[in-house]
Amino acid sequence: MNNHAAPPSAPPRRTRRIVLAGLAILGLASVAFAVRRPLMMSAPQCMAGRWHGCYDTENGVLLMMLVGLPFAALVVWALARRRRAVGGTSTWRMSLAEVGMVYGTVPFVWMTMMPGPGAGIVPGRMSLIPLRDLLTMGPIGIGGNLLIFAALGFFAPMRFAALASVPRILALGAGCSVLVETAQYVLRLDRVSSVDDVLVNAAGAALAGLASRPWWRTTTEAPSDRPSPAPAPAPAPAPAS
């Protein structure tokens, strides 16, 4: 007689999705509550549809990013439903990854490309000595740089199996950061193109990638959420003559 107890069954996928969605909503609500005062400073301009004071300020961009979350969730649902209709696999994960890495990256890149007061007048500036600017960034500057490509690092390996490794995520974050810093210098946006920004941006992408590691896409895809059809019965043997 076998006295070993059976291992507990894994929680259903639906339950895990509900728990993850609840944690995400709770985290976003906590962030929104913590920064509610500076965000509401841009609310009148944003609600009136004014560009100045809304989309050219960091507070305004973050506010509109939070306001647009229901629309982003609707896009995820529509993509997942379309994939499920054609019999795709990992419908929710793939759809969430596609929307998440775009919606969570574009607003932060937009903020880094906002011109300063001397844009177009002062020449481009560069800082190529590592760790020299890191001490002057401060907690807010470091946190902001960590977040710029965090969504890309979190969702990209969930969507693309070729990116499912920490060195590749690190290289992806560094490459995207180099493009942004180069654009700041070439366009003369009155910003300092710093190698420390590249290092912190890449580190943020890698750390976010590690957080999403349980959901990385691999070459062997998980089965579809839809039940697979039962195999056809074998033909009956022909009667003996």
Unreliable stretches (pLDDT < 50, length at least 5) are 6-10, 222-228
Shape: globular
The SSE order reads HHHHHHHEHHHEH
Strands of the largest sheet, in order across it? 1-2
| Radius of gyration, CA atoms, in whole angstroms | 24 Å
Helices, by number, come to 11
Overall SS class: mainly alpha
The separation of the N and C termini measures 49 Å
Into which percent range does the helicity of residues fall? Answer: 55-70%
Q: What is the average of the pLDDT values?
A: 84
What is the beta-strand fraction?
Answer: under 5%
Main pleated sheet: 2 strands, parallel
Number of extended strands: 2
Explain this structure to me?
With 241 residues, the protein is mainly alpha-helical. It has eleven helices and two strands, in the order H-H-H-H-H-H-H-E-H-H-H-E-H. The protein has a two-stranded parallel ribbon with strand order 1-2.
Features:
11 helices, mainly alpha
Tell me the layout of helices and strands:
Blueprint lengths: L12 H22 L1 H5 L2 H5 L10 H10 L1 H17 L5 H13 L2 H7 L12 E3 L6 H15 L1 H10 L6 H21 L5 E3 H17 L30
A few lines on this structure:
59% of the residues lie in helices and 2% in strands. With 241 residues, it is mainly alpha-helical. It has a domain at 104-221.
